[in-house]
Amino acid sequence: MRESVLVTGGGGFIGTWVLRELLHRGLQPVVLDQQKNDDRWRRVLGDDARRVVFVPGGLLDRPLLKQTAEQHQVTHIIHLAALLTPQCQQDPFAGCEVNVLGSVAVFELARTHPGIKGMSYASSYAVYGPEADDSGLGLKAADNRPPALYGAFKMAVDLIAEQYWRHFGVASLGIRPHVAYGPERTVGLTAGPSLAVRAAVLGEPCTINYTGRVGYDYVEDVARAFVQGALETPRGSVVVDLPSELATTQEFADTIRRVLPGTLITVDGPAIPSNVPPQPNYIGNLFPSWRATTLEEGVKATAEFYRDGLPR
């Protein structure tokens, strides 16, 4: 019998690529989300989208979580569902409900459902603040606090994961991507580079609407990390950082121009903070064979996706 993997938030950008990775490995994805994205699934998964089991619902519905795990004989969990930075800032209570209490519900499922063999979950570079000298708060370098509620909630989940291992023996692997990019990234401030590649394939001008130097992770790497982490969960409450190739927004635009000469891309907008891990624990320390996709390789793969899939 195929192993069955529960993916919370499987209707999202990263979630869709996680489904693709699971299907390619011959596993059965079971998605729990408020809504699915049929169009995105069709474009990324093709005919395999029909193999995805979809369960509409939210994380706080614990009876539904239990029923889903039992009915579909769930063996692994990939927990991605969360409200993002703008939503958490606008409604901190809702952000805490979904991101913290919802995550506790998922850990409780892992604790109480006997068939669960492994679990990965989405932590974030947002747990790191900017370098201490740039914080304006007089922090020491070791403090490096999250600058927004979203990061604080993610940090809380990392601490909760530690408690579930310490007291209940629930092993988990937290994955910290920085800025995920690639095909079908369409929402959020940092969607700009992905949208710029799509525009370049169509021969349209595009402006990336932020500046600054941050780390970029190609979405297929991110998906592979979550899947490998769930299938090969180490003992303990381990959290790893993805390598995140550092680049300014202008350098990303220059990479697109190299891959797609003649592209009309401009960069204009506010500078976004560069979250800095003071003591990174990169995923290669856990999985020695790990190889990250370079920025140029990721841009090429994104362009090829749109070349093959966009109507002319």
Mean pLDDT: 93
Shape: globular
Gap from first CA to last CA: 42 Å
**Annotation field: number of helices:** 11
**Radius of gyration over C-alpha positions, nearest whole angstrom:** 19 Å
Low-confidence stretches: 132-139
**What does the largest sheet look like?**
7 strands, parallel
Q: What is the string of SSEs from the N terminus onward?
A: EHEHEHEHHEHHEEHEEHEEHEH
Strand arrangement, largest sheet?
A: 3-2-1-4-5-6-10
Number of DSSP E strands = 12
Structural class estimated from helices and strands: alpha/beta
Range of strand content: 15-25%
Helical content band: 40-55%
How is this structure best described in words?
The chain is of the alpha/beta class. It is built from eleven helices and twelve strands. The protein has helices at residues 13-24, 38-45, 62-71, 85-90, 92-112, 132-135, 149-168, 192-202, 219-231, 249-259, 295-309, and strands spanning 4-8, 28-33, 53-56, 74-79, 118-122, 172-176, 179-181, 206-208, 213-218, 237-241, 245-248, 265-267. A seven-stranded parallel sheet has the order 3-2-1-4-5-6-10, with helices on both faces. Strands 7-9-11 form a three-stranded mixed sheet. Strands 8-12 form a two-stranded parallel sheet. α1 links the parallel β1 and β2 (28-33).
